[in-house]
Batch of 2 targets.
Target 1
Amino acid sequence: MNKYLLYPGCSMDSSAKAYMESLNEILEPLDLHLEEIEDWNCCGATEYLGINLIPAYSLIARNLALATKQMDGTRTVVAPCSACYLNLAKADYYMQERPTLGAKVNEALAAGGLEYKAGTLDVRHLIDVLVYDVGLDTIRSKVVRPLSGLKVVPYMGCMLPRPDYQHRWSDHEHPTELDDLLRALGADVIDYPLTTECCGGHMTQIGPETAFELIRRLVADADERGAQMMVTVCPMCQMNIDAYQNEANHFFGTNYHMPILFFTQLMGLAFGKEPGDLGIGVELVSARNALANIGVEVPVTQEPAAPRKKDEGLPMPRRWTRHEGKKEAVK
Amino acid sequence: MPQMTDERIRAGLTREEDLSLLHEVSMKTAGVSHLEMCIQCGTCGGSCPVAMDMEHTPRMLFAMLRAGMREEVLRSNTPWLCVSCYHCVVRCPQEVHIADVMYTLKGMAIQAKLYTDSTAPHFSQTFVDMVEAYGRSYEMGLASRHYLRHFPLRLPSMMPMGLGMITKGRMTITPKKIKHLDQLKSILRRAKQLELTS
Ligand code: SF4
Ligand code: SF4
Ligand code: SF4
Ligand code: SF4
């Protein structure tokens, strides 16, 4: 039994609950045991770092300090979210690189009766553990329903392979871990040069025009290459490309329909699990047609109410379009 | 620390504080920033996916830091557009911690109240308020507060998405609290009194 400490991050039981459900389904076949860090707190995503440094790092480090109390038999913390992974890894690394930072963060932690000695833990992303600890051979040996015929592009996102403080990845711009894993499941993996390009991160919230363009590039390229779906390793990437795809479509007047699933959902399918148990069907851009290609039938979940067709009652503001979004060019 | 030169004086940069700007930013950045080592090669701007929307490329911004142009730097939209993709960071020949310097500049701009568009600072602040109040982030509350304030025009097109997220159980309507919120609050209270200067 391989034991790891789990830092789930806030998305795992809300927007990315499909990720958590599917992860739970593959633990047993892979003989993995994940123990959740008791009373973990949000890592602050990329927001706190831009406001106030010591509180930002203390917020992250509280989780590391709590994790050290559960180290019985392991020193590895696993994060399924790329942003959480980077934050935890970064705090651990910078507290060593800059001892003053380490000292101040510990001074703050002491106010809560906690302490973290940088370097105590090993912070890793879920896919790193699956590919390098569990191993592709083991994964391949569990496949009972090969995904052959399913054309996928692997989307690693940006924060996972970079900046790579611990030199874990095969490459910073074109890492192949996700490609290899999906091939082990039997999927038809299409080369995707944009695999580590950013999907916009929090820009969907604060600078939508910038984010929509980044989303459009990723989706358009996947579409042109003949992909039936994108596969992701991060709740934020999934959220951006799934939940904002329609808005981006509207913004550019395009009509893409590119589902994006978590790699754990595809692992579950390949291991013979039922789509309903893997959170398949809660994505907003439905993967139903894509999965029909490999004979997987997705149960119909409740669809969101269709927006009213006709303007009736109160006049509504117009929808956000590219024209409103873009600043007028200065002549 | 850079020396006061004739060129700097002729350029109107006479204040000691201008000359120390680069150093200040470097010191306030989490790790060892290497900012002083920037050789102005431009690799960062050339690697940046959002450079097209930036008022200054990262390279230009760092030259401005060196020149002591505090206000111009803190008013620039560049740090706010940085999506922390770390493309520039892994390519920079001098290993400048570019993305982290951007975080430092955001923090300094907020303190000096020198940002020009309040959308991003408000989003960050709303997020942080949420985390400080609950220990977890609370997407539903965050999204609605944020859109009402900054993108009322976007709300109609956001509504099908929000509804979809709720009916599919992907957005929580009630926030989750951590158990030892008091402990977290004490840590953050103490942390706010500490600053990274040396
Ligand atoms: S990165 Fe996002 S999901 Fe992860 S803990 Fe932070 S806020 Fe929560
Ligand atoms: S691709 Fe986007 S969401 Fe994913 S890690 Fe990068 S910034 Fe975050
Ligand atoms: S890539 Fe590095 S050295 Fe080159 S301009 Fe940018 S920060 Fe300076
Ligand atoms: S980290 Fe920021 S500055 Fe660097 S390439 Fe990415 S968006 Fe541009």
Note: Residues 306-319, 324-331 of chain A have pLDDT under 50 and may be disordered.
Target 2
Amino acid sequence: MNQKYMLPLIGVFLLFLLAYAGVEGANMQWAFGIIFPYLAVILFIGGFIYRVYGWASSAVPFRIPTTCGQQKSLPWIKQNCIDNPDTASGVFVRMVLEIFLFRSLFRNTKAGFARDETNRLSFSWEIFLWVGALAFHYSFLVVLLRHLRFFLTPVPACVRFLEYLDGIIQIGLPGIFLSGIVLIAAVLFLLARRIFDGKVSYISLASDYFPLFLIIGIAATGISMRYFTKVDIVSVKEFIMSLVTFHPSIPEGVGGLFYAHLFMVSVLFAYLPISKLMHIGGIFLSPTRNMANNTRAKRHINPWNYNVKTHTYEEYENHFRDKMIEAGLPVDKKE
Amino acid sequence: MSKNAIIVGLVIFVVAALFPFWFNLGRSDTVAPKPELSEQAKAAKKCVLEKYDMRANHMSLLDEWRDSVVRDADRMYEAANGEKFQMSLSTGDNSCIGCHTNKEKFCDKCHDYASVAPYCWECHTNPKEITQ
């Protein structure tokens, strides 16, 4: 037992109970169905703008050439144009690959002692974090986009097509959506990694576990509503549409589980700007990824530099040229 | 990255995140359509399960029916309200489509709204479409 994950686990459980009991026991549909979701949207958008604006206002550091390939150099040395770009287009490709394929995670290594008598420390490639992260992020994206069917009427063909692809294995009724299963499996794997891998566990804090538990809670309630406990989807959609058209009205017969799901989603969105989940916006501003390595080609002036008075060699020579020629010293320009 | 580029990205993000709000601005036609009961259904008064149960759970019921017929060759279903049904999607008066005769005005109304496209009709037929 470890309080770093027990506390967030209990916290998420209490959030669930709060909404479930608030609706089933105290009939507080208006709070969990209307007030908290609107509040969450405001906090999410406001907080996101505040955070990114803060980053935008801070000074851009000197280009950091921590790269994974050959820098632009002499013409006969082959440059790695994507891993060590010196142009904006190279940086663009590097950013696209980072955002869509998580290449930094792909390079993940793990350290370990050899199990024989040499007991040597060695590093090996560790791909599972990358696999788990890709599965998690993409299934979450699909789940999120699929939920657009509750926010749009009529539902656009692209969302229908996504649903069709997601439900392509046609098992059971209502048919299984692959993304839901992949999402819960991936998030459980990422959680297990934090708990059981001693080195990761050591650096994990409550704020690492909380979003994981929250997402597990959201996925579990969603899966439960779709496949097991059931909810009247048509009334739910009518309710969501009433929220997005600003005529909120509480549906009849929709139970506490739906409000618990909605409340946990609201908490996730409201919490996002003050948490590590801000990497949604932050990844675009990764200083080691989004700047070209052209420090030798272009002069970068540090924005907070003190204004130092300089005296270049050219100025020096201009000043002493006559005397230098007189003394027989070599000069660049002979007047 | 330059400040201006970041602000442009931020604006794009906010507009995209608020998409459902501005896209539906000022609309009032977003309430769910009411499925229309056919004459047969009106006469029968009762569905297989309670109305709310039917709304949320009819796909699971159909799954149960399908498995019962195709795997156990058992076509008789005794509902909780004592009625007996010949389990079928669209064959006979006791089937879903037999009672809810107008599929377009009943099943499809909800399904279009909720964006579900049951694949059943690739094999099963709606008797009305055949006689037309």
Note: Chain B has a mean pLDDT of 88.
